[in-house]
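Researcher: Please generate the 3D structure of the following complex. Treat every line as part of one assembly.
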Amino acid sequence: MARGISPTRKIGMTVLAWAVGFLIFFPILWTVLTSFKTELDAIAIPPKFLVFDWTTENYAAIQEQRNYFSFLMNSIYLSLGSTALGLLIAIPAAWAMAFSPTKRTKDVLLWMLSTKMMPAVGALVPITILFRNFGLLDSRIGLIVILCLINLPIIVWMLYTYFKEIPGEILEAARMDGASLVKEITQVLTPMALPGIASTILLNVILAWNEAFWTLLLTTTNAAPLSAFIASFSSPQGNFYAKLSAASTLAIAPILIIGWFSQKQLVRGLTFGAVK
Amino acid sequence: MSAITLRNVSKRFGDVVIIPGLDLDIRDGEFVVFVGPSGCGKSTLLRLIAGLEDVSGGAISIDGRDVTETPPARRGLAMVFQSYALYPHMSVGANIAFPLKMAGMDKAQIEKKVQGAAATLNLTDYLHRKPRELSGGQRQRVAIGRAIVREPNGFLFDEPLSNLDAALRVNMRLEISELHQQLKTTMIYVTHDQVEAMTMADKIVVLNRGRVEQVGSPLELYEHPDNLFVAGFIGSPKMNLVTGPFAERNGARTVGIRPEHLLIDRSGGELTGTAGVSEHLGSDTFIHIRLDDGQSLTARAPGEFRLNHGERVGLTPEAGRLHRFDEKGAAIR
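Model: Done. Output below.
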């Protein structure tokens, strides 16, 4: 490094970085810890940090009350389904915007993003009525469409940014070599953009997995994913914090594990376009 | 095998006119070079022929078939790009096989053709490598392999050698010329390098601001430039252009004299001046001379010729080798 950093400063920065990291991670850690407490320990004051009677009874209890796996399967269906549908629409859209832009391309992109600025609740009534009339309430297919639509602007933006980095001459070469539009996109563009598409998929799966607003309002049992599973434990009989924590832990565990193994891709996804 | 005809072809980007309207005939099997300074529209013209850009007006036909509205894939032309434009995720073999795969050829036949093309271009040992593992010259050969493998009606080259170093460029120039001798297919080659144009072309098209300045064989252009632009562009070092009393005595506004047509005589000549820097290339010596009226000339002398800086010299143009131009820059013949 060009600038000398003194060892003390380096230690200070390291401690600070860990402290910030711990602070951000603390709520998740606390949730996981609470899930292993008894209901009494969970609300004890002063709070018990590591010294309490460790128990797995909460996990057994919630599995007894609700079928975790049916919620898990719904979460998987919804996040993968909405991502797949989103890519199917976004890849051609981003291709058109990146390689055959018009004067209005930037406006279209901004307009798409602006739909994310609208409070979701503003569209609640029309969407609910549409869903009711088409018999889509509490159906996986209906929710896949909604989750796809709400994340579509982000998918298009991300793919657009990745596609922009691909030299247009390579696609022109494919055209000269006799590739049809579909083959140009599937056999040349998509494989070249694979790292970008992978981080787009990852980010979108996480966004869809975490989506609570629409999943809570448009589902009851059949199509309810894990976000609805957590919410169902915040019950009218009062909150059972240990059980709620166990439910939350189970709900976030799959996505946390995926996130852990794909940190590198994710960081690239979150800072997309920032650096080449 | 194909003849390519352009009739009144024009191209605008918004309000900017790149090519105002141009006619051109390219005969079957010809090696045609588009040459001109950067921004003259030569690459745009090539992309119009390829179909990668739509024409704003006029018509393009290949072998009498109007292809103005035909997409690039169906024009039967292959293109080699300046950046090579190889598919980075495919091996060399898959790159060369791609156009055949797109044409729906069966696997055994593709394999045979790829092996054939690889053998022609010395790429047999590299078929399993990815493009990033190759040198610039090898990448260019892969791009050429991808173009020749499907036996197109014509080849389009867009400044294919400008990313290569000088030695490799001379080599590849020969390889492409050799390829043209073998295949006898129509080739259109775009370059800003007039040496490439002179050495490779059957026919040179000199372009300037989207207009054709002159079309002809390399020697025709060299010996009989139609105008000042062509005179100044073709030839290295450049043709000397002299104005003033000397030109008027020859009945022209400007007179052009090639460096090799100036006789140097220390005892005097039709033009007199002072010697400047001498560039010794071994075989030749190029001497820069400042005339008494301030104009600069370059003269070619034999390699062993010595002239001191600041020495007085006289110059006499070889009889019958003067190029005369009128006030509009057009040649007077």
